[in-house]
């Protein structure tokens, strides 16, 4: 539907609040959503834009505040809302899904419909015309790939289970990387998600049913061009995909188009001329498509030797005949002199994820992780205690500084020295201390009501009792800042999800000030990180701190942000649903 650029694209206009509320209510009712989920999928700041497809079919796209298309309609006056993959990535179970091998995905992205032999999993009771999503099948797992396409069922689900069934399974309306998707920020699909037990059982039941009918489990495979589908028997160990020579030739041809389109811009053609063998190893081989690790591996090497071309020279001369490049033989060596970046096949080529892209992505991920490790250093939070009132005499008699501040370990050292010097360790059980044998220790750690009843204490209990009789302090050290030393007990940052105004969820963050975080700056950062509205107000109660409110259930996003600012995990306390 959107394999070609949208035509007659109008300027986007903000949706009125009343229209947005009506749209949200319509979507909630149509898809049986909770109101808070509806709020997330139809957010404030929604824009609408009219368009026409390449077949002159009119439609309306609804864009989120960040510009991503979230919903669209097709046809004059249509109220049938269709979610985009951006919306399905927020709620993968919004629609019933069919799964297909990774090799089929590029075919769908290119504008093809999903064929029946390409369906691996499908739920029962699907009806022709029903809206469904299409995901990548993950081999032997309860995980399911993120939705990559959406469309209408072409047949009932019963037809999919019939032996040797052929024809179309889904009329694809929109897919990842098509021109509707390109209106957004063009991100990569998120990680696979875990199927709920009920969905997983339904899917497994259908797979078992299909296996029985077909006398053995079968999985569809697609050739490099997506022009035909085959089925291969699943054995143990897992199967591999074998490609024909024509398949390998097609992949290499696409790799050449990929290399010309993505690598050879006007500024990079200066690398030419170069030997054909160098061009092949430097540009064509890295431009071969990357395979999903969740699918059976391809057993056929994708190179000239396993293609239908007799040699590398034949491959390049075939490309020259198509007008993709120009060759010249110098001293018996074939040289590539130029490439046709404006060739029709190059312009029409839809770039895919290549081996080079994967290598660069992994390299960048490693660099980012290294930068994160070197840039973000955890805050050093130390709880301290100072002798105070009842504990002053105890520390003085034990020979320790009464003006110093002690860590928990140091308090243990003080107590161990005191009980050892005075032979207070219980002779029968050394984990117990004879508190009743020492009047000073007894009056220090026991309550004033009846200290005589406190004869024995475990060592750890004694340390806790002693620290309770001391004054609480804390010290926080951060790289590039002076250490902060304050009196009082430090508490973890509180991140709490609360439901207000019916079922509308909000996330409240309090107690962040000691960790070098300022309310207004925190709210601004979370507004971007969570893609939600935020507000700042005084925290309730006697506390002088502030409270940051984020719309929606954003516990995960908030805790990840706090970690990125160096707040140790043990100093973040969360409550409520994530």
Topology:
Elements: E1 13-14, H1 17-31, H2 35-41, E2 47-52, E3 58-63, E4 69-74, E5 82-83, H3 85-90, E6 97-100, H4 105-109, E7 114-115, E8 131-136, E9 143-144, E10 147-153, H5 157-160, E11 168-175, E12 193-194, H6 197-213, E13 218-222, E14 229-233, H7 245-263, E15 274-275, H8 276-284, H9 312-321, E16 325-330, E17 333-339, H10 344-348, H11 355-375, E18 380-386, H12 390-397, H13 408-421, E19 432-434, H14 439-445, E20 456-458, H15 459-468, E21 471-477, E22 484-487, E23 493-500, E24 504-510, H16 519-530, E25 534-538, E26 546-551, H17 555-564, E27 572-575
Parallel strand pairs: 6-8, 23-27
Antiparallel strand pairs: 1-2, 2-3, 3-4, 4-5, 7-11, 8-10, 9-12, 10-11, 13-14, 15-17, 16-17, 18-21, 19-20, 21-22, 23-24, 24-26, 25-26
């Amino acid at each position: 539907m959107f394999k070609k650029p949208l035509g007659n694209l109008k300027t986007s206009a903000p949706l009125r609040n009343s229209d947005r509320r009506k749209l949200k209510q319509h979507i909630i009712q149509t898809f049986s959503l909770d109101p808070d989920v509806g709020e997330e999928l139809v957010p404030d700041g929604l824009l609408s834009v009219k368009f026409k497809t390449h077949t002159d079919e009119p439609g309306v796209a609804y864009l989120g505040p960040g510009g991503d298309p979230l919903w669209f309609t097709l046809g004059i006056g249509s109220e049938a809302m269709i979610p985009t993959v951006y919306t399905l990535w927020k709620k993968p179970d919004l629609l019933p899904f069919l799964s297909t091998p990774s090799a089929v995905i590029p075919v769908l992205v290119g504008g093809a419909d999903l064929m029946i032999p390409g369906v691996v999993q499908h739920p029962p009771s699907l009806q022709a015309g029903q809206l469904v999503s299409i995901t990548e099948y993950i081999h032997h797992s309860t995980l399911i790939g993120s939705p990559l396409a959406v469309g209408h069922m072409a047949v009932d689900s019963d037809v999919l289970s019939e032996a040797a069934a052929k024809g179309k399974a889904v009329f694809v309306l929109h897919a990842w990387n098509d021109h509707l998707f390109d209106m957004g920020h063009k991100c990569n699909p998120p990680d696979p998600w875990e199927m709920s037990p009920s969905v997983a059982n339904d899917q497994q039941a259908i797979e078992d049913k299909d296996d029985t009918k077909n006398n053995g489990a079968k999985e569809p495979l697609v050739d490099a061009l997506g022009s035909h589908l085959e089925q291969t028997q699943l054995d143990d160990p897992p199967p591999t995909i074998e490609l024909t020579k024509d398949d390998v030739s097609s992949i290499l041809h696409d790799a050449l188009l990929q290399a010309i389109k993505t690598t050879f811009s006007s500024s990079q053609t200066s690398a030419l001329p170069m030997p054909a063998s160098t061009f092949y190893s430097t540009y064509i081989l890295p431009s071969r498509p990357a395979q999903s690790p969740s699918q059976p591996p391809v057993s056929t090497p994708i190179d000239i030797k396993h293609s239908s071309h007799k040699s590398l020279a034949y491959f390049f001369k075939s490309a020259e005949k198509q007008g993709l490049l120009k060759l010249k033989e110098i001293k018996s060596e074939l040289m590539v002199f130029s490439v046709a970046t404006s060739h029709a096949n190059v312009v029409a080529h839809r770039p895919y994820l290549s081996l080079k892209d994967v290598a660069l992505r992994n390299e960048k991920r490693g660099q980012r992780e290294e930068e994160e490790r070197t840039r973000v250093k955890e805050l050093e939070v130390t709880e301290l205690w100072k002798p105070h009132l009842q504990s002053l005499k105890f520390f003085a008699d034990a020979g320790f500084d009464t003006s110093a501040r002690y860590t928990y370990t140091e308090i243990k050292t003080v107590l161990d020295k005191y009980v050892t010097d005075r032979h207070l360790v219980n002779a029968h059980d050394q984990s117990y201390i004879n508190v009743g044998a020492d009047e000073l220790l007894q009056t220090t750690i026991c309550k004033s009501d009846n200290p005589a009843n406190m004869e024995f204490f475990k060592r750890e209990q004694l340390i806790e009792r002693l620290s309770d009789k001391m004054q609480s302090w804390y010290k926080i050290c951060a790289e590039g800042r002076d250490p902060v030393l304050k009196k009082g007990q430090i508490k973890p940052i509180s991140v709490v999800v609360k439901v207000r105004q019916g079922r509308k969820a909000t996330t409240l963050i309090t107690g962040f000030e000691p960790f070098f975080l300022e309310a207004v700056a925190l709210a601004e950062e979370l507004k971007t990180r969570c893609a939600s509205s935020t507000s700042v107000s005084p925290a309730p109660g006697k506390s002088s701190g502030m409270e940051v409110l984020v719309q929606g259930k954003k516990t995960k996003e908030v805790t990840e942000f706090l970690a990125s600012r160096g707040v140790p995990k043990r100093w973040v306390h969360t409550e409520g649903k994530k």
